[in-house]
Amino acid sequence: MLQSTTARPGDKTVAFTVTLHVKPGREAEFLDLLTPVLDAMRHEPSFVNAVLHRSPDDPTLFMIYETWADLDELVQVQIPRGYRQAYIAALPDVLRQERGVTIWQPIRGDFASAA
Fold first, then answer.
1. Cα dist. 106→11, 19, 67 in Å?
2. Domains in the chain: boundaries
3. What backbone phi and psi angles, to 5 degrees, belong to 71?
4. Which of 34, 60, 78, 111 is least surrounded by CB atoms within 10 angstroms?
5. Rounded Cα gap, residues 114 and 21, in angstroms
6. How far is it, in rounded angstroms, from Cα 63 to Cα 55?
7. CA 3 from chain center: how many Å?
8. Alpha helix (H) residue ranges in the chain
9. Could you list the residue ranges forming a coiled coil in this record (predicted)?
10. pTM, to two decimals
């Protein structure tokens, strides 16, 4: 079964891509820091989805695609959550450059799902 969704006027849904260039040899440490954050995020009421990617050409390059129901709620409530603090504090030491964050407004989504 295939599903398609289209954004409605006034929809506050927001998507992000976060690009992370990890220092060589620190990939496992980075994933150990990130995994509990991803595990906790999925239980938040405004969380929609997150997909972690790794470059097939560069094992130190990661990208997270996240979707949240509301940007303001994400910034004011979710980012300051305690479960994110160790991860955020460690990033300057684990990354070889500042993370890149790009904000997107979803307008359509197409998904395959099990019947």
1. 9, 18, 9
2. 11-106
3. -60, -45
4. 111
5. 34
6. 8
7. 22
8. 27-41, 71-73, 85-94
9. none
10. 0.85
> Which tokens is 100 given?
């890149």
Residue 22 has pLDDT above 90, yes or no: yes
pLDDT in tens, 75-101: 898 888 899 999 999 999 999 999 999
Single-letter code of the amino acid located at 44: E
CA distances to 3, 24, 66, 93 from 96, rounded to whole Å, are: 39, 8, 22, 8
Q: What is the distance between the alpha carbons of residues 51 and 63, in angstroms, rounded to a whole number?
A: 8
pLDDT tens for 37-88 read 999 999 999 999 999 999 999 999 999 999 999 988 888 988 888 999 999 9
CA 100 from chain centre, in angstroms, equals: 12
pLDDT of residue 95: 99
Buried-state track 81-100, b at ≥16 Cβ within 10 A, e below 16: eeeeeebeebeeebbeeeee
Distance between CA atoms of residues 106 and 68, nearest Å:
10
